[in-house]
Write a structure and sequence with these properties.
alpha/beta; 5-stranded parallel beta sheet; 45% helix; Diaminopimelate Epimerase, Chain A, domain 1
């Protein structure tokens, strides 16, 4: 299927779409396709996150925020778990969708390639280019490596397959690891550090056996605050923000909790369905956006996490 997708990408005018607040994995995939196929335009309707903006600037890569889909022959959607993540752009039928999050029925009717076993979408795009014998540039190799590095939590969640792909690109393009780290490295600014401290002030935690679940509130840098909550001792953290009727929740879990069976992407996807909102992501990192009261949503996240810990505790007790 990937070879067939690559064949389609060689034809006509292509619009590549990334999810809002696009991360380096999405950007790396988009850049690799942009530099490997002709007549490609890249757009993210919700802009990019700070690291992706930095990477795009270093690569001298221009990414738009709006496009008229009818002007293109093919629409390609990357690293996006649901159509809501590319709103307000309305997509036609039979787009090409390449993803690695939990498989979603919402992409039915499209050419949909999803491999949940991959830690990054960049691995899938690299495999597609290899299978189709499409050469990649050194810059594209760097962009794909940045996606693999960041989506694996700087290898905290890496699989053997990701490490093999990472090493192959490094060897093929003669890229040193410090070049990838330099591409993605960004010092925290004062506002991000303040957000982390405010998150610590507002946190609430619950204990279940030896495990701690944390929720907190912020106004920005939710994912960064989540990581800070784990650094303070939490096993699972949810940080939310409210902007008018809109809310956003970021979630993070320690690697050992993911190995226990917790999948934050599926947990937030389920909550999203129940609350008519949009959630999803990876086992150890996920997000939920929509309309409603963020405090109520955070309480649901806390309750579901404690349910997971209690169920796991009972299983371990039954084993004894």
């Amino acid at each position: 299927m990937l070879s067939s997708i690559a064949s389609d990408l060689a034809k006509g005018r292509k619009l590549v779409l990334m999810h809002g607040n696009a991360d380096p994995d999405a950007l790396g995939c988009a850049y690799a396709i942009y530099s490997s196929f002709p007549d490609v335009t890249v757009v993210t309707p919700g802009g990019m996150d700070r690291i992706s903006k930095l990477i795009a600037e270093k690569l001298k890569f221009e990414v738009g925020e709006r496009a008229e889909v009818e002007d293109f022959d093919r629409i390609v959607i990357l690293d996006t778990s649901s159509p809501d993540q590319i709103a307000p752009i309305k997509i036609p039928g039979n787009c090409i969708v390449i993803d690695h999050h939990a498989r979603s029925d919402r992409w039915n009717g499209h050419t949909y390639y999803c491999d949940e076993s991959k830690r990054s979408c960049a691995e899938i795009v690299y495999r597609m280019l290899k299978e189709a014998d499409v050469p990649i540039t050194r810059q594209a190799g760097l962009a794909l490596l940045a996606g693999m590095l960041t989506d694996s939590g700087h290898f905290k969640y890496a699989t053997p397959e990701l490490l093999h792909a990472f090493a192959d690109i490094m060897a093929e393009q003669r890229i040193d690891i410090d070049e990838v780290l330099d591409l993605t490295d960004m010092e925290q600014d004062l506002s991000e550090r303040i957000s982390q401290l405010k998150g610590a002030q507002r946190l609430r935690f619950e204990r279940c056996g030896d495990h701690l679940a944390v929720i907190s509130y912020g106004s920005a840098f939710e994912s960064s605050a989540c990581k800070a909550m784990l650094g303070l001792g939490g096993d699972v953290a949810f940080v939310g923000s409210q902007r008018g009727e809109q809310f956003r929740v970021s979630a993070r879990a320690r690697a050992d909790i993911v190995r226990m069976g917790l999948h934050l992407g599926k947990l937030l996807e389920d909550i999203g369905v129940e609350t008519s909102n949009d959630g999803g992501g990876h086992g150890g990192a996920a997000g939920l956006v929509g309309v409603g009261d963020v405090e109520a949503v955070l309480n649901i996240c806390m309750a579901r996490t404690l349910d997971f810990f209690r169920a796991h505790k009972q299983v371990e007790k039954d084993k004894r």
